[in-house]
Every structure is written in C-alpha cells, then in structure tokens.
Design goal:
Elements lengths: L12 E2 L3 E5 L5 H9 L1 H4 L10 H16 L4 E7 L7 E9 L4 E8 L8 H15 L5 E6 L4 H9 L3 E12 L2 E11 L3
Parallel strand pairs: 5-6
Antiparallel strand pairs: 1-2, 2-3, 3-4, 4-5, 6-8, 7-8
Helix pairs in contact: 1-3
Bound molecules: coenzyme A.
C-alpha cells in the first residue's frame, strides 16, 4: 500500500506567532527577496534568483506540485503582517516509502528568534499526524550550523555524511543527512 496525501484544501497552520499559508502569485516580490539573498541561499546549492519572472515560475511550479499532491510549501508570515518572511515545506515526497524531505528558508532580519523552530515543529506535527509519514529527511551542507542546530533541537538524528557528492558552482560539496522517525 502506498501513502496518499491530499493538500486540497490547503492546510493553513497557525502557531503562537505565525501563520503558515499557501504561497500566492501576489507573494512574488517577497519570495524574490528570500530567493535572491546570498545569506538565505548560501547553503541551498541552487543559484540566486536574478529576475522576478524566474520566481513567478517557481511559484507556478510550487502550485502545480501542490495541485498534484507531489509536494507542499508554506509561506511563513507573522500574525500581524500579511507579507511572507520565509518558507518551509516538503518538496520531495517518496509516497512508496512514507518519507519526505524538509526544507526551509528565512529572511536574515528574522533569524535567531525561534521562528523557524516554531514553523518546523508545526509542520513535523502535520507530517506525522495528517500526512501519516513514517520519516522525514533533511539534507544539509555540514557547514550550515544554524540548520543542523535547528534539526537537532527538533530531535532529528544525523545519519550520514556524504563526501563531495554535490557539485555546485565549480565545487564538490559534502552533504549531511538527518532524519526523524514517526514514533507512533
Ligand atoms: C536555518 C534557519 C532557517 C534557522 O532559522 P532561525 O529562525 O534563525 O532558527 P531558530 O531561531 O528557530 O533557532 C533554532 C536553533 O538553531 C540555533 N541557531 C540559529 N542560528 C544559528 C547560528 N547561526 N549558529 C548557531 N546556532 C544557530 C538557535 O540558537 C536555536 O538553537 P537553541 O535554541 O538550542 O539555541 C536560518 O538560519 C536560515 O534561513 N538560513 C538560511 C537558509 C538555509 O540555510 N536553510 C536550510 C537549508 S538545509
């Protein structure tokens, strides 16, 4: 039996300080800010966004994936503001293995306030209780101390370190794999 997921209607999530909501075409300017900053993209292993139109394409792709239940991204906004300051989601879902890969990014102005910890807690809970995943994977650059700390704080375990398995910008980069199992 294979896992089935259904993101329709979109599962908006409310936490103490945040609203995790669908990313709309009208969020393109804010998502561009997030995708074009060296600080937010440094360890992502993808090129910086240069144009608004490529971020429009990204939103289109996110929405296609959502409609086809292939992946989900939530925009992160503070409760008293409508603009998004980051994103979090599961972009690769391996339905046959009840497993998905988590990803997250936050604008630097909002770092170190526990915001991503709050968002990750909420979507881990969603993954295990609503999506019924068995495990969540995170692939990070081992130099990304903030990301490793965030994962450890959420009980993810470091399971593997691949040496120079990722070629980006003319360099071979290591990958550290973390995972969290659903204990229920
Ligand atoms: C990783 C990231 C999302 C963390 O978001 P954040 O909201 O600042 O994280 P939090 O405030 O919830 O902090 C979570 C934990 O990480 C720690 N932490 C955060 N930034 C840190 C840093 N630069 N160095 C060391 N620890 C750090 C916090 O202290 C906290 O742990 P603690 O409670 O034990 O002290 C943010 O730094 C970011 O967007 N980075 C760029 C994008 C990125 O690299 N994404 C991940 C790709 S795998």
């Amino acid at each position: 039996m294979m896992l089935t997921v259904n993101f329709n209607p979109f599962p908006t999530i409310e936490t103490e300080r945040l609203i995790l909501r669908k990313i709309l075409m009208s969020d393109v300017e804010e998502l561009f800010l997030i995708r074009s900053r060296i600080e937010t993209m440094k360890y992502i292993g993808k090129p910086l966004a240069i144009t608004i139109s490529e971020v429009e394409e990204l939103i289109q792709k996110m929405n296609d994936n959502l409609e086809n239940n292939l992946g989900i991204a939530w925009g992160i906004s503070l409760k008293n503001e409508s603009k998004i300051i980051g994103s979090v989601g599961y972009h690769r879902i391996e339905k046959e293995h009840y497993r998905a890969e988590i990803g997250y990014q936050l604008l630097p102005d909002y770092w170190n306030k526990g915001i991503m910890n709050e968002a990750v807690k909420a979507i881990v809970d969603y993954a295990f209780n609503n999506m019924k995943l068995h495990s969540i994977e995170a692939k990070i650059d081992p130099n990304n101390i903030a990301s490793a700390q965030l994962l450890k704080k959420n009980k993810f375990i470091s399971e593997a370190h691949f040496k120079e398995n990722y070629f980006f910008n003319g360099e071979f980069i290591d990958t550290e794999i973390f995972s969290l199992l659903n204990k229920n």
